[in-house]
Design brief:
Elements lengths: L1 E9 L3 E2 L6 E6 L6 E13 L2 E15 L2 H13 L2 H8 L7 E7 L9 E3 L13 E2 L2 H12 L4 H16 L6 H27 L4 H8 L6 H10 L4 H16 L4 H27 L3 H7 L13 E10 L14 E13 L5 E12 L5 E11 L2
Parallel strand pairs: 2-8
Antiparallel strand pairs: 1-5, 1-6, 3-4, 4-5, 6-7, 9-12, 10-11
Helix pairs in contact: 2-3, 2-4, 4-5, 4-9, 5-7, 5-8, 5-9, 8-9
């Protein structure tokens, strides 16, 4: 058996602080146990500008041949992406296997594999630091939970919901959040039976004052969505209408965007609560720093101003439209102790206009696309 190392990477709004990582030891695979390390590579433009790059995953373990470790090592590296997404309440994208090689010490000939993956780019985008201690506690709780499979399914659906967490795709987000609710329903039902001392589901339905056929919907409405009737019925209508195609798209979009934030908040709280984590960890992961879902959005930059001067033609010779060449540069970007980036910008503007036309800059706006 040889020692192999695999490296995967991909985009993620959930990031690790410099020098920190999540280390998972002896994760079982069909090739044998592997060690997995999740980290973020910081791209240093200068001493005062450190932009978070992609999520990097290193998997190490033993195998008989490089071709036999590609699938199990790769699947192992991807296994904990939903956990990271739920913990940070932030988008974690797909990762690709980039490298795999024989890392056995003191040998002369080694097998090597590489897949072309587009170069990492230092594009500034919203990001949120992962609390490693709380994430490790969440991992431990799920591992020891008898319902870890269903909770894992719900976490995967929550991660998928954040994949579509941007303008115009709230319907898709609700669809995934509803599937997460369905995955969690048997878990919540079992807990309610235990807490209320119900011998069976019929008895539980009687205790809740509902017909047996309405038991699961009642559990979703009362407990998983925290009694929010409006969010429940709107989300259900969106999910059913989207799945079966019987509702107008614009109607579903209006409904979904009105409840997406609330449904996501409740679903994530349910995942964390049902995982069995301690209250102090739950409070930390649902506190202000992690309350708002962070999707795949990039930063939007808007320039407003006034074009001054008479004339039918506003554009520079050879151009059809008036245009300002705009080169925004980050002069300072450092992660502060609160987990937020302090950013200083420099904007270089070069108007491309017809003779006699001038541009007076007004307001510059930088915000997250939602």
């Amino acid at each position: 058996m040889a020692q192999f190392t695999m490296v995967l990477r991909g985009t993620s709004a959930a990031i690790f602080r410099e020098g920190s990582n999540l280390h998972i030891r002896s994760f079982p695979t069909t090739s044998g146990p592997v060690d997995i390390v999740y980290a973020t590579r910081l791209i240093k433009r200068s001493p005062e500008v450190s932009i978070p790059g992609q999520l990097w995953v290193e998997v190490q373990g033993e195998g008989a041949d490089i071709n036999r470790i590609l699938a199990p090592f790769g699947n192992a590296g991807m296994a904990f992406l939903p956990l990271l997404s739920v913990s940070a309440n932030a988008h974690v994208g797909d990762i690709d296997v980039e490298l795999a090689f024989d890392s056995t010490p003191d040998i002369e000939q080694r097998q090597y594999f590489q897949q072309y993956v587009a170069p990492e780019r230092d594009i500034l985008a919203p990001a949120r630091p992962i609390d490693v201690v709380a994430t490790q506690a969440l991992l431990n709780a799920i591992k020891s939970n008898t319902e870890q499979t269903r909770i894992g399914r719900a976490a995967s659906q929550y991660r998928a919901a954040l994949e579509s967490w941007h303008l115009g795709q709230s319907i898709e987000s609700i669809a995934h959040l509803w599937m997460a609710l369905e995955a969690l329903t048997p878990v919540e039902r079992k807990i309610q039976m235990t807490q209320k001392g119900a011998a069976n589901t019929t008895e539980l339905a009687t205790m809740l004052g509902v017909d047996i056929k309405d038991l699961d919907p009642s559990i979703r409405r009362q407990f998983l969505l925290e009694g929010d009737e409006e969010s429940y019925w709107k989300a259900k209508q969106v999910s059913d209408g989207f799945e079966h195609g019987f509702a107008d798209y614009d109607q579903l979009w209006q409904l979904s965007k009105s409840v997406r934030q609330q449904v996501a908040r409740s679903v994530r709280k349910a995942i964390l609560r049902l995982s069995g984590i301690e209250k102090q960890v739950f409070d930390k992961l649902t506190g202000p720093g992690y309350a708002k879902p962070m999707g795949t959005n990039s930063l939007a930059q808007y320039l407003r101003g006034i074009l001054q001067g008479r004339g039918a033609n506003l554009a520079a010779p050879g151009s059809k439209y008036p245009f300002v060449k705009w080169n925004p540069q980050v002069k300072k970007m450092l992660l502060n102790p609160a987990g937020q980036y302090d950013v200083e910008w420099e904007h270089k503007l070069s108007p491309q206009l017809a003779e006699g036309i001038k541009f007076t800059p007004g307001k510059l706006e930088i915000m997250e696309k939602t």
